[in-house]
């Protein structure tokens, strides 16, 4: 078994690197869109179309505690 240990260690390292690379790639696909800042500014530019906590008194996210 010890003769295979370096090969197993190398295989595990390659698999770990591949999973890390796949994770980084998946995270990169979920990064912010360049237009997000412009979209977020819409709320500031048009406050009459937005709601806030005062509009929904007694409401809690996920329902009543």
Compact description:
The chain has helices at residues 5-29, 36-45. The relative contact order is 0.06.
SSE diagram, text form:
Blueprint lengths: L4 H25 L6 H10 L20
Written account of the structure:
It is a single chain. The mean pLDDT is 80. This protein starts with a helix and ends in a 20-residue tail after the last helix. The protein is elongated and about 70 Å long. It is built from two helices and no strands. It has helices at 5-29, 36-45. It has 65 residues and is mostly helical.
Indicate the proportion of strand residues. under 5%
Mean of pLDDT: 80
Major pleated sheet:
none
Regarding quaternary structure, what we see is single chain
Percentage of residues in helical conformation: 40-55%
The assigned structural class equals: mainly alpha
Which parts are unreliable, with pLDDT below 50 for 5 consecutive residues or more? none
State the total count of DSSP E strands: 0
Comma- or semicolon-separated keywords:
65 residues, mainly alpha
